[in-house]
Specification:
The chain is mainly α. 75% of the residues lie in helices and 1% in strands. The protein has a two-stranded antiparallel ribbon.
């Protein structure tokens, strides 16, 4: 005889099937199509006619120094951005979780950077870091910290610092909102009981807040990791991948390969490999965060 649990499981699958089919259509088909195209050589050398070449495009990728350089740049950008956004997002969430006058207005204002278009943000920060009339140099000169304008977007290291700063400023509110939702779900009685036992605020944060926030931290990190790894518009507007490829992430390299050099087959192979590397990285990050969650409980 069918139990209530089995009926609930069947109902759950019936409700999930349409969503799974939609995800398969939206994500599965493009990747399958890209994999099929990657098995062909289609560029100016073949007069843009597809010529079956098997896995030659993938073999070419192994020795493509520009691809691996862009992958390293993407890894550095993603790691730095996510770590800083998680740190600042947690601080902002803790502040917004306190009771103070005008908290609703502050919360609304805090989300504005996330709501603004990324291309617009990139243009604004490119102006801020402009070496001739940028606000960053003007402030530093007024404070007497520098004598001449710094070429922020013309030096490899400084250009990376500039794009990371812009990304952190824009997406920290996203992290803070996710973590704020987690903070509001924690009962105040836990903190009250903990304080009665003589715990300090830091002990309460370490023993109550942080362990109970692990699920929200997991979600925030995975979302931001995937988004930062696929960054395109912000860097395209601010530096275009320069100077000298110092900020050229994988998405920009793929764009150049397909749209500038018209190498469609190799570009498709780059898309497939990048997608697989992203999936692998997300799975590893998810496992590590789950291990961290287990160790704190």
């Amino acid at each position: 005889m069918e139990t209530i649990r089995s009926r609930e499981q069947k109902t759950a699958w019936i409700l999930l099937i349409p969503a799974m089919l939609l995800l398969l259509l939206v994500f599965g088909y493009p990747i399958a199509r890209a994999f099929w195209l990657s098995l062909f050589t289609e560029n100016l050398g073949t007069q843009l006619q597809p010529v079956f070449s098997g896995f030659d495009n993938y073999g070419r990728m192994v020795g493509d120094g520009r691809f691996w350089q862009s992958f390293l740049v993407t890894t550095i950008f993603t790691s730095a951005s996510v770590i800083l956004e998680l740190l600042f997002g947690l601080i902002v969430a803790l502040v917004l979780n306190q009771q103070f006058f005008g908290r609703g207005v502050v919360r609304t204002t805090a989300i504005l950077p996330w709501a603004l278009p990324t291309a617009l943000i990139g243009l604004a920060w490119a102006w801020i870091f402009n070496d001739q009339y940028g606000v960053a140099n003007d402030i530093l000169q007024r404070l007497g910290l520098i004598q001449a304008g710094i070429n922020w977007l013309g030096e490899p290291t400084l250009a990376m610092v500039a794009v990371i700063t812009a990304d952190v400023w824009k997406t920290t509110p996203f992290i803070s909102i996710l973590l704020l939702a987690g903070l509001q779900s924690i009962s105040a009685d836990l903190y009250e009981a903990h304080s009665i036992d003589g715990a300090t605020p830091w002990q309460s944060f370490r023993q109550i807040t942080l362990p109970l926030l692990i699920p929200q931290i997991l979600i925030a990190v995975l979302f931001r990791f995937a988004q930062a790894f696929g960054i395109f518009d912000l860097i395209a507007v601010m530096t275009g991948g320069g100077p000298g490829g110092a900020t050229e992430v994988v998405s920009l390299y793929i764009y150049s390969t397909i749209m500038r050099y018209l190498d469609f087959g190799y570009g498709a192979a780059l898309v497939v490999v990048t997608f697989m590397l992203l999936v692998f990285a997300v799975v590893i990050a998810s496992l590590l965060l789950r291990l961290a969650r287990t160790s704190t409980t």
